[in-house]
């Protein structure tokens, strides 16, 4: 009941609360035994053998005095325990790695040991005490089992994390060689492009000189100018290079990013793609491919609309699929117009958009919150004042199991307090 009450009042992590409570409970038991043994030995010299073997009777002052001294000694030992420099701030180290597991197993062993000792001392002959000790014995075994369960679960998680790290290292190695190959291809492409430019200029140069001579004589027709312009554009299109993107190793997603690279380039927007971590692991263990592709489509489209609604000369979008602080996330940076505070405060309550007149429908974020709920993911919107040299905002969907909506902003005082979102005054990152 105490554990449940603490859990309700603090709304903390269940594993930490039950571990901390049981740790304090076991420490109390140990200190009680340490206090009882010397006090009992001393008092044995002042009482008769009959009183030692008799049942405890608190009508006898000697018993009250003995237990009072045990009580005082136990308190003094508790105070001394926290005078130790290492323990002045409690036991925060218990939650490091496997310490919590070891402590749970030790706690269970203490309960089993103490109940076993009491049973051997003959208390099992009394029904009430026997029932209590049996219950404590069972609780001790359960706590040991709980500790072993956490140990197994953490070992599995660590194994999965190591596998993910190995996959990441392998991916980095492959990316290194792929980047090297890509750079070689890019060098060839630049050379070929320069050749194509020279060829295009050569093909147009004589016609341009001819048109200049005709202009001096006043014989230039508009049709001639239009034809020359169209031919020049066709020559340019021949060497318009295709931007090379990093591969996710998932063909449908590679095709999706290549589609947006072309679409945004045609809209005079520079598009970048950054990958960190194993995307295959992400799709196998974190989010379904269809849901991730939905997030990609929605937020790149929203970023494009935001940029087209802006007069900013810095027109860039960067999409990221990355492993950050042990959590996978999808993130989009853009240099478009900022969100209004009203829009940010209402996100997640339905279809909300800042750019209804520019094609925004609000469906993207409505779908995002549905996907967040499905995977218990968090939405982090990070914004800074708009400039012509940097991104204005980033939108991250982080699969951290917290299902939070966080607004990291340079204008925290403009937002009303709400339980729906968390306002953080942080620098753009």
Q: Could you explain how this protein is built, in words?
A:
The protein is of the alpha/beta class and 429 residues long. The chain folds into two domains: 2-164, no CATH class; 245-429, 2-Layer Sandwich (Heat Shock Protein 90). Helix content is 60%, strand content 10%. It has twelve helices and seven strands. It has a seven-stranded mixed beta sheet, covered by helices on one side. Strand 2 (316-324) and strand 3 (327-334) form a beta hairpin. Helix 5 packs antiparallel against helix 6. It is elongated and about 135 Å long. The two termini are 45 Å apart.
Main sheet specs: 7 strands, mixed
Rg computed from alpha carbons, rounded to a whole number of angstroms? 36 Å
Shape: elongated
CATH architectural label of the largest domain: 2-Layer Sandwich
Structural class: alpha/beta
- Average pLDDT works out at 77
Total strands: 7
CATH homolog superfamily of the largest domain: Histidine kinase-like ATPase, C-terminal domain
- Subunit arrangement of the protein: single chain
What are its keywords?
429 residues, 12 helices, 2 domains, Heat Shock Protein 90, single chain, alpha/beta, seven-stranded mixed beta sheet
